[in-house]
Amino acid sequence: MTHPPYLHPDYASTVLRAPGREPVMPRLGPDSVELTAPVFGDAELGALDADLTRQAPGEPLGERIIVTGRVLDARGRPVPGALVEVWQANAAGRYAHARDDHPAPLDPNFTGAGRCLTDAAGRYRFASIKPGAYPWRNHHNAWRPAHIHFSVFGTAFTQRLVTQMYFPGDPLFAYDPIFQSIPDARSRELLIARFDLDTTEPEWALGYQWDIVLGDTPVEE
């Protein structure tokens, strides 16, 4: 996959955040204690953490979805026991967060956050609501395509990938500088989930498949 540059002027935040100089030393790998120390266990997870439609007394508004896939290492091997976290806007395009002042309605029955551990085959599964697009003030008339944020931990805090998953056919792709910061079209397509009828549950939720490849993220053998 082709990664985006640190500095992408169309994505305004990178102008302030991108490093201005080359690194003075090669990237250092994690220490052995960082790779082998215990991090997470099944006891840390709640019964409804992976079902964002059942975390409140009422039913959240919006189109119900199921998102599932595999977490794989750079060699295509499944990564079991990885902590996968998600956060997203609600169906109206608003986050349940104090800093989100977008005048779209909040949903009292939707937290927009979930987590799960991958199983022995490296598979994760979330039930949720399809997020809405939202304005983000990067440039004139700027709107983010519908997306879900993903965070994937390996066996330690140093083994973390943060990325975004998009939905097929979104008309905002061409106008989104975050999505377009990835120069290679094939790499951009890897961020788009695939609609899957077999994952879809009749009369309840549409299903999407999306695999996550950790690439060169260090994973203990």
UniProtKB/TrEMBL annotation:
Annotated Intradiol ring-cleavage dioxygenases domain residues: 67-95
Keyword annotations: Dioxygenase, Oxidoreductase
Keyword Cytoplasm set for record: no
Superkingdom in the source lineage: Bacteria
Family matches, as Pfam families: Dioxygenase_C (PF00775), PCDO_beta_N (PF12391)
Family stated for the protein in its record: Belongs to the intradiol ring-cleavage dioxygenase family.
UniProt keyword annotation of Manganese present: no
PANTHER family linked: DIOXYGENASE, PUTATIVE (AFU_ORTHOLOGUE AFUA_2G02910)-RELATED, INTRADIOL RING-CLEAVAGE DIOXYGENASES DOMAIN-CONTAINING PROTEIN
UniProt source species: Actinomadura fulvescens
Designated name of the protein: Protocatechuate 3,4-dioxygenase subunit beta
